[in-house]
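Hello,

Our lab assistant flagged a job as stuck in the queue for most of the afternoon. It eventually completed. Since we weren't sure the result was trustworthy after the delay, we are filing this so someone can double-check. Below is the sequence as submitted and the structure that was eventually returned. Let us know if re-running is recommended.
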Amino acid sequence: MIMEYPEPAEKIETAAQPLEPVIEALLFAADTPVTLARLTEITGADDTAIREAIDRLNQTYAETGRAFRISRVAQGYQLYTLPEYADWIRRLYAHTRIQRLSAAALEVLAIIAYKQPITRPEIEQLRGVDCSAPLLTLLERGLIVTAGRAHRPGNPFLYRTTREFLRYFGLESLDDLPRLEELGEFLAAREPESE
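-- returned structure --
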């Protein structure tokens, strides 16, 4: 059965409908982060009122022991489950095949994230091997896009990350990426574990 919803009014009267349940419903229904501008557009409330409503919702969730919160990610807001429920969520999807990124794709993605915009020849020079397959995978998954062409011989494509990249890794912006020094220390610390 297909549900039909009435066309939204230009501006919903927030006095008639409390803002918190409206925001909660919007974020519950959305499969991607919803920007503050979009929440403002839909509800007619201003930025401050929306941020305050989200803070009140998160406070209510914490006080009542809910398993989820609203988080700012990929320049928007999204409902997410708390990490302590990860094992239960894994059980829910135990029979679903999760497509993880290969080590090569993660390596190429890291190079793009830190050096963007960057060309394929530059990536291959840093990696020392061909990166055609990982680039194709990342493009298909929407984690990177072409960002024009470099002004050099052959005019190679430039690649950069997308909002989906931010959402996938739970980042609000590229500023949330660990510094390269921190990343190197983290990987060095994990090296003995993997052996």
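-- support follow-up --
The delay was a queue issue, not a problem with the job. The result is valid. The first strand starts at residue 68 and ends at 73. The two ends are 54 Å apart (CA to CA).
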